[in-house]
């Protein structure tokens, strides 16, 4: 397959202006605010401005958001199921954070997250030539922890009582994957 951001079951694509309603519903879903560190709703105006700037190169914007689309096995058409991000892109240290959302519960546990992480990791290491990726996951988010660990991320630290919740404080784990293709290690 020629497209580095596509597999037999999913594809990762750039955000389009027509995604505004989709992003509006996802970003304003209070059930996921805890995992995205969101505290206030997003307006369509702000999302429109974000979409208008989504074309800016990752080296300038320091982030990249892609829509995850799954292929319907009966119609062979793609439909959006989530988003995956590179954020806090640091070209000097050659690293970025990675975050993922599979929005609807009925779309989870189908391998979309694992496949999306695999594709974006490959893109980050081969195309952007990053040295490492990291993610931050609440200690209670066992599904995300399992997926990232299955994809080769290792727990490298615990930020104790890092996240404030309605039920008290929660630890956050930091996971990291160093590019196995990196030749320039300083140790």
Task: Please tag this protein with its features.
alpha+beta, Aminopeptidase, 7-stranded mixed sheet, 7 strands, globular
Describe this entry's structure for a reader.
This protein has helices spanning 20-27, 33-36, 44-52, 58-61, 112-126, 142-150; strands at 10-14, 64-71, 78-90, 95-102, 132-138, 154-165, 168-178. A hairpin with a 4-residue loop joins strand 3 and strand 4 (95-102). The longest helix has 15 residues, at 112-126. The protein has one domain: Aminopeptidase (3-Layer(aba) Sandwich), CATH 3.40.630. It starts with 9 loop residues before the first strand and ends in a 9-residue tail after the last strand. The chain has 187 residues and is an alpha+beta fold. The chain has 6 helices and 7 strands. The model has no long low-confidence stretch (mean pLDDT 89). The chain has a 7-stranded mixed sheet with strand order 1-2-3-4-5-7-6. InterPro entries: Acyl_CoA_acyltransferase, GNAT_dom. GO terms for molecular function: acyltransferase activity, transferring groups other than amino-acyl groups. Pfam families: Acetyltransf_3 (PF13302).
Give a brief description.
Keywords: Transferase. With 187 residues, the protein is an alpha+beta fold. It has six helices and seven strands.
């Amino acid at each position: 397959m020629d497209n580095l951001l596509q597999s037999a079951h999913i594809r990762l694509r750039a955000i389009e202006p027509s995604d505004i309603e989709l992003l509006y519903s996802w970003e304003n879903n209070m059930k996921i605010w805890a995992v995205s560190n969101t505290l206030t709703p997003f307006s369509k105006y702000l999302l429109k401005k974000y979409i208008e700037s989504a074309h800016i190169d990752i080296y300038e914007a320091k982030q990249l958001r892609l829509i995850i689309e799954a292929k319907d096995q009966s119609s062979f058409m793609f439909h959006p199921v989530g988003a995956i991000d590179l954020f806090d892109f640091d070209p000097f240290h050659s690293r970025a954070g990675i975050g993922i959302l599979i929005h609807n519960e009925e779309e989870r546990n189908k391998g979309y997250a694992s496949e999306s992480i695999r594709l974006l990791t490959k893109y980050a290491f081969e195309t952007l030539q990053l040295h490492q990726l990291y993610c931050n996951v609440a200690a209670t988010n066992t599904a995300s922890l399992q997926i990232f660990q299955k994809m080769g991320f290792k727990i490298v630290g615990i930020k104790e009582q890092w996240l404030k919740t309605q039920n008290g404080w929660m630890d956050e784990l930091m996971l990291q994957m160093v590019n196995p293709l990196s030749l320039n290690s300083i140790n």
